[in-house]
Amino acid sequence: MSGPTGRGPVGAGGRSGGSKFRDKAVDPVRAVARDVLRAVRERDAYANLLLPALLRERGISGRDAALATELTYGTARAQGTLDAVIAAAAGRPIAEIDGSLLDVLRLGAYQLLRTRIGAHAAVSTSVDLVRAEAGQGLAGFVNAVLRKISQRDEDLWVEELAPSIVDDPVGNLAFTYAHPRWIAEVFADALDGSVGSLQAALAADDARPPVHLVARPGQITATELALMSGGAEGRLSPYCVYLPGGDPGRLDVVRDGLAGVQDEGSQVVALALTRAPLDGPDGGRWLDLCAGPGGKAALLGSLAELSGAHLDAVEISEHRADLIDSITAGLPVTVVVADGRDPGLAPGYDRVLVDAPCSGLGSLRRRPEARWRRVPGDVDELVPLQRELLTSALRLVRPGGVVVYSTCSPHPAETIGVVDAVCAATGAEQIDARPFVATDGMDFPVPGPGPQVQLWPHLHGTDAMFLAVLRPAPAAPTAHID
Ligand SMILES: C[S@@+](CC[C@H](N)C(=O)[O-])C[C@H]1O[C@@H](n2cnc3c(N)ncnc32)[C@H](O)[C@@H]1O
C-alpha cells in the first residue's frame, strides 16, 4: 500500500504512470524548481549555478523567474525542517519515500509553510507535477500528505516537532531556522553564548541574502553606482552598493565590468589588507595566496593600480586561475597557478592575503543547499591545509609586513584555532584588526575583545567573514662572530 498511512516504500521503483501522463500540463515555474531540487539531490548540483541556466534555457523570466528562484532556494534552504514535517504528515521516515516524490513534497511543503501562496495552488501544482510524471496513485499520496501539512501553519508544526526551547535551546533554534544542529552549535560556539544572539544569527542566515555590488575603484564611485543601479551605498566598504533586488547580471554597469557582485564582508577583508600599517614603506609587492575565483584579487588589483603596487595571485586550480585572469584583465595582477604552501615565489612581500579554503559556513545563505551537504568532518580536513597556507604566507612576507588570514566561516577551529596555532608555532603576532574594517569615523559594531574580527549577517549584513591581521616574527639577528 502506498499512501500517508501505508508502510511500503512510497514511489520506489520508478514511474508508475507511463507516457500517457507526461503530456499533462504542469506549471513551468514549479517544474523548473523541481528539476533543480532533483539535480541537487541526485548529482550534487549547485542550485545557484543550475537554476539560472535552466531559466534561460526554458525562457522563464521576470516575475516567473523570481518565483522559481524563491521556491527553489527557499526549499533547498529549509530542507531539514521540511523533511521532519513531511515525515510526520506521511507517518513514515523520509528514507522510505522515493526521492522524486520527496522533491515535490518539499516544494509543496515549502509553499504551504513559508510562502503566502494559497494552499490550493501549492497542493494542486504539486499534485500535477507528480501525476504528469508518475501517475494518479502517487499523485494521491502527495495530495494526502500536503493536505495534512496544510492543516497547520509553520509555527504549529515547529511547536509540535522541535525540541523544547527550555530544555534544548540550540536544537529548538536549529529546527526553527532550518539549520543542521551541528552548524547551530558551531554558531553558538563562535557567538557570545546567549540564546538571543544565536536566534538572531540563525534567523539572518535563514533569510534571502541581499545582493552587494562592488564599484571598481578608479572606474566608478559607489555614489555613481548607487544612482545607476537604484541601490544604496554600503555601510562598511566605500566601494559597496546594496541592490534592492533583481538580477545584477542585467545591469549594464556590471556587464561593462565597472562593477561586480561581491559581498561587503569580502570587500572589507581585501580593504583590511591595504589598510594595515607596515613597518617601513610599502614597496608595492602584494600577494593573494588563495585567489580563485578572483573577487578579492580584482578589488586588490584595482587598489594596487591606484597606488602603484602589483599583485601576485596564486591559485591551485587551473580553471579558477582562468577566472582570475579574466576578472583582473588590464590590472597590475600576475596570476600564478601553484600550491600556495610552496608557490616558488621569492619572499619579501609587503602584504599577503590568505583567504583560505574553508567550510563556507559563513556564506550558507548564498548557497541554498550547502548547509545540508556539509558534514562536521569537512572542517577536520581543512584545518591542516589552512595552517600550512598561513605558515607559508608568513615565510613569504617581509619583516614588518602584514598577513591577513580570512575565512568565510565563523567555525572557531578554522578561525582563531588556526591563527593561534600558527602564531604559537612561528612567533608571529596579531595586530588589532578592528580599526581596519570600517570607513573612518564610522560607528561600527565589532563584537568581542579583538584582535580578530568576526562579521555576522545579523550584525553587519555581511556574510560571516573572519579576519585576523598578523605580523611575522622579527627576523632573528644574524650571529656575529668576532
Ligand atoms: C575561499 S577561496 C578564495 C576566494 C577568493 N579569495 C575570492 O575572493 O574570490 C579559496 C581558494 O583557494 C584555492 N586553494 C585551495 N587549496 C589551495 C592551495 N594549496 N594553494 C593555493 N590555492 C588553494 C581554492 O581552489 C579556492 O579557489
From TrEMBL:
Feature: compositional bias, Gly residues: 1-17
Binding site for S-adenosyl-L-methionine: 290-296, 315, 339, 355
A UniProt-annotated Pfam family: Methyltr_RsmB-F
Segments forming domain SAM-dependent MTase RsmB/NOP-type: 187-473
Region of interest (Disordered), ranges: 1-22
Active site (record annotation): 408
Molecular-function GO term, any one: methyltransferase activity
GO annotation (BP), single: methylation
InterPro entries named in the record: MeTrfase_RsmB-F_NOP2_cat, MeTrfase_RsmB-F_NOP2_dom, NusB-like_sf, NusB_RsmB_TIM44, RCMT, SAM-dependent_MTases_sf
Keywords: Methyltransferase, RNA-binding, S-adenosyl-L-methionine, Transferase
Family, similarity comment: Belongs to the class I-like SAM-binding methyltransferase superfamily. RsmB/NOP family.
This protein's name: 16S rRNA m5C967 methyltransferase
